[in-house]
C-alpha cells in the first residue's frame, strides 16, 4: 500500500498511535525507503533527499487532501538539542516540522543548515551599515 492511499484505509488519527511499517518509493530521487533505520516508529521523509509528501494536517492524521511534495527548506534545533527539518509544500505552501531520522543524509542536512550562511536574505555588504544603524548593539539609536 502506498502512502497516498493510507488515509482512506485507516481511521482518523491511526498513525498518531501506531507505527508506520510501510515502504515507499521517493517521488523525487526514486529511492526505496524502508522504515528500519529511522530511529523512531514513524518514517515521514526520504533519508536520501529529505523530501516528504503533504499527507497530514496534524502529525499522523493523514487528513490532508493536498498530496503535494514537501521540500526541505531549513533545519532548526529543538530545546532538547534534537534537530528537525522544516518542510514546505510546493503545491500549497504549508510549512511542517519533522524530526531528523537516524539514517538521514548528513551532507544534505548540513547543506540545508548552511544555506542561510551562504545565501543570506540580505546583501552581506550591508552588515556594517546595519550594525552601525543599530548602535553596534543590535538596537536602533
TrEMBL record:
InterPro entries xref list: RNHCP
Domain RNHCP: 22-110
Name the UniProt record assigns to this protein: RNHCP domain-containing protein
Source organism (scientific name): Thermobacillus xylanilyticus
Gene designation: txxe 3078
